[in-house]
Amino acid sequence: MRDGGQSDVVYQVPAEPAHFVDREREQARARQLVMERRPAEDGGTRPLCLLLRGRAGTGKTELAFRLARALHQQHPDGVLYVDLDDVRRDGAVEVADILGELLRALGAEWIAPVFRERARQYWSLTHGKRLLLVIDNARHGTEVEPLLPASGDSLVIVTSHGPLYDLQAGAATEFPLAPLDPADALELLERVTKDARLAVEPEETRRLLDLCSGLPAALHIAGNWLRRHQEPPLARLLNRLGTELRERGIPVVEQVWDAAYDSLGPAAARLYRLLGHFPGPSFTLAAADVLLGRDLDTTEDALAELRAAGLLDGRGTDGRERLPELLRAHARRRAETYGDQGEREEALRRLVRWYLRQAQRADLTAAGPRLRTAAEAPPVPGTREVLFEQPGDARGEAAARAYHWLEAERHALFGCVRLAHTVGTAGDADWGLTEAAALCEPLWTHFLNHPHYGDHIDAFRRGVAAAQQAGDLPLLVRMRCQLARPLWEQGEFEEAERQLTQAWSTVRGAFGTSEPERKLAASTREFLGMLGSARGNWADAAREFEAAGAVHQEIGNAYGVTLQRYRLGEALAHLGELERAATLLERSRDEFAAGGRTRLTGRAEFALGGVYARLGRGDEAGARYRAALEGTRAVRGVRDEARVLDALAELAASLGEEREAEEHRTAARELWERLGLPVAGSDR
Question: Where is the AAA+ ATPase domain (predicted)?
Answer without folding.
Answer: 46-193
